[in-house]
Amino acid sequence: MAKKIDPKAIVGSKAKIADNVEVGPYAIISDDAQIGSGTKIEPFAQVLGQTKVGSNCHIFSQAVVGSIPQDLKYKGERSYLVVGDNNRIREFVTINPGTEKDAKTIIGNNNLIMAYSHIAHDCVIGDENVLANGATLAGYVDVGNNVVVGGLVAIHQFCQLGDHSIVGGCSKVVQDVPPYSMCDGHPAIVRALNSIGLKRKNFSSSAIKDLKKAFKILFFSDHSFDQAKKITGETIGSVEQVKFLLGFISNSKRGIGRRQDK
């Protein structure tokens, strides 16, 4: 199917537009942008700079994808934004490329980025994530897979959000969010295991049971965090999901928000 570009759209002569792409009136696509097959760009949306958008994405009206970083260090370097396949980018979303020369912001596949959300420079977003309305990610944030970020959540730069985690709406995230967790608060801390989310993703009952044990020791016991990690490793550390959880915690650079730190 041939591309369908409204005559009122502003499309750079050097832009690479695949077949079966729809571009609505008054949308703007810059010279250096690339748009994959089956992607739809609604009226007044903008795809700017060195931005590559994958196949079957849907970019809604007034979204601005690829505008220069909101970073005082940025001096006009050539940097990139790479957006994967099957992403829905809703109204008034803003996504920035990397800051330094050849740096990238990367968005994976099958993500829903709801209206007014912001993904800043140098972020890495995995697959199958949901960012609810007004979610705000500062620079260098790393989001795993199957993560839900609630509405109006603000995430500090360099934070990591582990796979299958969920952050409650209006939270302030200043430390890393462990995999499989439900976090909430000001600042956000671990509140529970994301049991419902894990069931929806077909985690086995035994894996969920072992993760509940691990969470009880790590986040809700009277042990120091170091003691809790040691006990968890010695008792159920061989379980695949628990091993992954402990590895994430060990590699955390911003620390983990928990109820108490003795």
Short description:
The chain has 262 residues and is α/β, with parallel strands linked by helices.
**The CATH class of the largest domain:** Mainly Beta
CATH topology of the largest domain: UDP N-Acetylglucosamine Acyltransferase, domain 1
How would you sum up the major sheet? 11 strands, mixed
Radius of gyration: 20 Å
**Considering the protein shown, what is the CATH homologous superfamily of the largest domain?**
Hexapeptide repeat proteins
* Span between termini: 63 Å
- So what's the overall shape? elongated
Number of self-contained structural domains: 2
Structural overview:
Helix content is 18%, strand content 26%. The protein is elongated, with a radius of gyration of 20 Å. A hairpin with a 2-residue loop joins strand 27 and strand 28. By secondary structure, it is α/β, with parallel strands linked by helices. Helix 2 (205-220) runs antiparallel to helix 3 (225-236). The protein folds into two domains: 4-140, Hexapeptide repeat proteins (UDP N-Acetylglucosamine Acyltransferase, domain 1, 3 Solenoid); 199-251, Udp N-acetylglucosamine O-acyltransferase, Domain 2 (Up-down Bundle).
Question: Could you list some keywords that capture this structure?
Answer:
262 residues, alpha/beta, UDP N-Acetylglucosamine Acyltransferase, domain 1, Udp N-acetylglucosamine O-acyltransferase, Domain 2, 11-stranded mixed β-sheet, 4 helices, 28 strands
What's the arrangement of secondary structure elements?
Blueprint: E1 4-5, E2 10-11, E3 16-17, E4 22-23, E5 28-29, E6 34-35, E7 40-41, E8 46-47, E9 50-53, E10 58-59, E11 64-65, E12 80-83, E13 88-89, E14 94-95, E15 104-107, E16 112-113, E17 118-119, E18 124-125, E19 130-131, E20 136-137, E21 142-143, E22 148-149, E23 154-155, E24 160-161, E25 166-167, E26 172-173, E27 181-185, E28 188-193, H1 195-200, H2 205-220, H3 225-236, H4 240-251
Parallel strand pairs: 1-4, 2-5, 3-6, 4-7, 5-8, 6-9, 7-10, 8-11, 9-12, 10-13, 11-14, 12-15, 13-16, 14-17, 15-18, 16-19, 17-20, 18-21, 19-22, 20-23, 21-24, 22-25, 23-26, 25-27
Antiparallel strand pairs: 27-28
Helix pairs in contact: 2-3
